């Protein structure tokens, strides 16, 4: 019996997806777990695996097509089987057996019900590797057969290959010009969406950035205590400086709730709970997942949740509902690891503000009793929507973040 390949519904708000690349052609043999095509929503990119074994009988949509969710994209079956009943828009017995449900980690996916479950069982012996990772491994002459993948369902992804051998693969092959002066790299759909959102943010709001520095001696002491505890076995959770800073930001937001808000038209929607967005750099572009009800979490719980949503973004299985700009009430973007001393983060509208975290720099300071020395300071860059918050309250909010950092204690 032929099996339809259906466009998954990635989140409740997603109505269509764009097919970005096909990896299989009509007439190709496919096996369960083979990647058929890549597709993108308005927030993230994903790969779709084959739901069964057979021949790719027909593709109903080509690259670049915008396909409604839960619609038949292709058909897999035996040679000679008819695909007429699977044409998009025609109800089929198989298509009625498709539902969308969340997994335990919040990821949404399409699942074929028991009537055809036996056709989509993934064989334990199959090597699950993304096309890009496979190309990179082949280019480097690496044997990936025994490599443990960190992608969805244990799939080997580019990051796994990069860890095995030095080197980075480019996001896409550039198109060389007729001469030698330049090459052209087309923007991915995700990159286009990011660019559109950033441009709209700057165009439709009155953004202003204040800069301030905070003494991080207490944070560094706490961080060293955590690292020492990891070595001795007394501490199991690795709490980073970014985790501590996010904790301080949440405390400050509770004291300045007007910063924990969305500006919608002429209304400032102030939230009673802090849903913290965290900027994450991924191979597919910048993503900002949200930790819901972050103000209810203890520091160690917050650290676990921040790492969880960031890793889900990098693996490509984050819940799309968590990366909508409306999911977070405030965002933190940390460029300190890159050595950035000061920058101007761009607000994720309709949020009213975003905090940029910069690198740590040792500066001369008065240590008391006419003693001067060098003190580590971290840069803080607060961008806020001047339509929602005035300069005075914004400065007091940033000062509160500074004070929370300087009095931090485990």
Structure summarized in a few sentences:
The chain is α+β, with helices and mostly antiparallel strands and 410 residues long. The chain folds into two domains: 3-123, Beta Barrel (OB fold (Dihydrolipoamide Acetyltransferase, E2P)), CATH 2.40.50.100; 205-406, Chloramphenicol Acetyltransferase (2-Layer Sandwich). The chain has helices at 131-140, 158-164, 189-203, 217-232, 241-255, 299-315, 391-406; strands at residues 3-6, 16-22, 29-30, 35-40, 45-49, 54-59, 66-68, 72-77, 98-102, 108-112, 175-176, 183-184, 207-215, 261-264, 267-270, 276-278, 280-282, 285-287, 290-291, 330-334, 353-368, 371-385.
What do these coordinates show?
- The structure is a single chain.
- The chain is α+β, with helices and mostly antiparallel strands and 410 residues long.
- It folds into two domains: 3-123, OB fold (Dihydrolipoamide Acetyltransferase, E2P), CATH 2.40.50.100; 205-406, Chloramphenicol Acetyltransferase, CATH 3.30.559.
- It contains seven helices and 22 strands.
- The protein has helices at 131-140, 158-164, 189-203, 217-232, 241-255, 299-315, 391-406, and strands at 3-6, 16-22, 29-30, 35-40, 45-49, 54-59, 66-68, 72-77, 98-102, 108-112, 175-176, 183-184, 207-215, 261-264, 267-270, 276-278, 280-282, 285-287, 290-291, 330-334, 353-368, 371-385.
- It has a six-stranded mixed beta sheet. It has a four-stranded antiparallel beta sheet with strand order 1-8-6-3, with no helix packed on it. It has a four-stranded antiparallel beta sheet with strand order 5-4-2-7, with no helix packed on it.
- A hairpin with a 2-residue loop joins strand 14 and strand 15 (267-270).
- The model is unreliable at 91-125 and 166-172 (pLDDT under 50).
